[in-house]
Amino acid sequence: MIDWTWLSTTWKELLMVLLSGLGIYVTLLLLTRLSGLRSFSKMSSFDFAITIAFGSVIASTLLTKSPSLAAGCFGLAVLFLIQFIVSRSRRLAGFVEAVVDNEPMLLMAGERILEDNLTRARVTNKDLLSHLRIAGVTHPKQVFAVVMESTGDVAVLKNSDQIDPSLFAGVRGSEQLNYDA
């Protein structure tokens, strides 16, 4: 037998979703204004995880009775506070940055694909080629470096007349780059 209640709702439920949506939106807006847009940046894997947690709190507050709107708003405030403390600690204490952030890794040095780093980063050759195409690379000779950033993004840097080695500070494998080529 089909339970048709799964496909319907009541006006009361819709009103509660509307009120919860407005309440959580206003809370999110206020907290974002207080803490700044960095709250939703993808500067580190931790930031990404917190952004996912924001979405989870918002969704559960919006569509279920528990948590209540007040508990959901408080949960958002707690996540914003944790993110603030961690981001401040990353700036002040290097060991916190080392614990929270992934180390960027060189995937290509010039035309040479660094297979060991691809394996460590769990990136396939097909993934790498896709990133090269997206960056407009038409031949491997155009590539100076490909870096998997601490956020999981892949940066493709093309050959240029001037490449500042300081851009590669802290990138695992950067000693394999040839700045003279």
Task: Please describe the topology of this protein.
Elements: H1 11-35, H2 45-63, H3 69-92, H4 94-100, E1 105-109, E2 112-113, H5 115-121, H6 125-134, E3 143-148, E4 154-158
Antiparallel strand pairs: 1-2, 1-3, 3-4
Description:
The protein has 181 residues and is of the alpha+beta class. The protein has 2 domains: 4-99, no CATH class; 105-176, 2-Layer Sandwich (CRO Repressor), CATH 3.30.240.20. The protein contains 6 helices and 4 strands. It has a 4-stranded antiparallel β-sheet. A hairpin with a 5-residue loop joins strand 3 (143-148) and strand 4 (154-158). It is elongated, with a radius of gyration of 23 Å.
Structural class: alpha+beta
**General form:** elongated
Number of strands: 4
Gyration radius (Cα, Å) is 23 Å
Domain module count: 2
Strand content: 5-15%
Estimate percent helicity: 40-55%
Q: Helix tally? A: 6
Mean pLDDT comes to 89
- List segments where confidence is low: pLDDT < 50 over at least 5 consecutive residues: none
Major sheet, described briefly?
A: 4 strands, antiparallel
What is the spatial order of strands in the main beta sheet? 2-1-3-4
Distance between the termini: 72 Å
Secondary-structure element sequence? HHHHEEHHEE
